[in-house]
């Protein structure tokens, strides 16, 4: 299941890693080759970190664990990837927003810059096994209720026609 889970979170992880890489690129001073390496290292670190904390059926489960955060403290995953290309935490603080929260959840990646910033969605996809299945479930239960609700009156109605 390990590789399966990895494959499932590939889009979310690459979206998140590409976003942080874009932030670094925008601040300038980091070469393309370094950025590419940074992105790959960050993806790898995230994959490793999220491996047993990825629940497509309960996307919010483990959200705090997967949350990438810079808040006067460098997120360890970003710090690790930056270390691979020789960027110190001090340098990262100069290059990246001092307040950044990045939520990497199944089917949705979103971020907020600043503590009171608005939350922006970077990636959103319908849940293949999650929401859809839930909708179907509720749809069937609605249908059942509807059938149950409808069946009693129609039954008595039928009985009346039979009896008359």
Question: How would you sum up this structure, described in words?
Answer:
The chain has 164 residues and is α+β, with helices and mostly antiparallel strands. The protein has one domain (9-124): Anti-proliferative protein, N-terminal domain (Actin, Chain A, domain 4), CATH 3.90.640. It is built from 7 helices and 4 strands; from the N terminus they run ααααβααβββα. The chain has helices at residues 2-8, 10-27, 32-50, 63-66, 76-84, 89-95, 131-163; strands at residues 68-71, 99-105, 108-113, 120-124. The protein has a 4-stranded antiparallel sheet with strand order 1-2-3-4. Helix 2 runs antiparallel to helix 3 (32-50). The radius of gyration is 24 Å and the shape is globular. Residues 96-115 form the Anti-proliferative protein domain. InterPro entries: Anti_prolifrtn, BTG, BTG-like_sf. It comes from Atrichornis clamosus. This is BTG1 protein.
Number of strands: 4
The CATH architecture term is Alpha-Beta Complex
Which structural category do the helix and sheet elements fall into? Answer: alpha+beta
SSE topology string: HHHHEHHEEEH
Number of domains: 1
Please give the largest β-sheet.
Answer: 4 strands, antiparallel
Task: State the helical fraction.
Answer: 55-70%
Integer-rounded radius of gyration: 24 Å
The level 1 CATH classification is Alpha Beta
The general outline is globular
**CATH homology superfamily name:** Anti-proliferative protein, N-terminal domain
Average pLDDT works out at 81
- In whole angstroms, the N-to-C terminal distance is 64 Å
């Amino acid at each position: 299941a390990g590789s399966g889970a990895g494959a499932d979170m590939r889009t979310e992880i690459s979206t998140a890693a590409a976003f942080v890489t874009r932030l670094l690129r925008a601040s300038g001073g980091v070469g393309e080759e370094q950025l590419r390496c940074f992105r790959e290292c960050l993806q790898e670190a995230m994959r490793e970190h999220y491996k047993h904390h990825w629940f497509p059926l309960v996307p919010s489960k483990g959200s705090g664990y997967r949350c990438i955060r810079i808040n006067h403290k460098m997120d360890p995953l970003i710090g690790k990837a930056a270390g691979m290309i020789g960027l110190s935490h001090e340098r990262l603080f100069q290059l990246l927003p001092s307040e950044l929260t990045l939520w990497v959840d199944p089917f949705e990646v979103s971020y907020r810059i600043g503590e009171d910033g608005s939350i922006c969605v970077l990636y959103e996809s319908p849940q293949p096994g999650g929401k859809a299945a839930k909708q179907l479930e509720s749809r069937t239960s609605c249908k059942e209720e509807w059938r149950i609700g409808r069946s009693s009156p129609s039954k008595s109605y039928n009985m009346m026609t039979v009896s008359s």
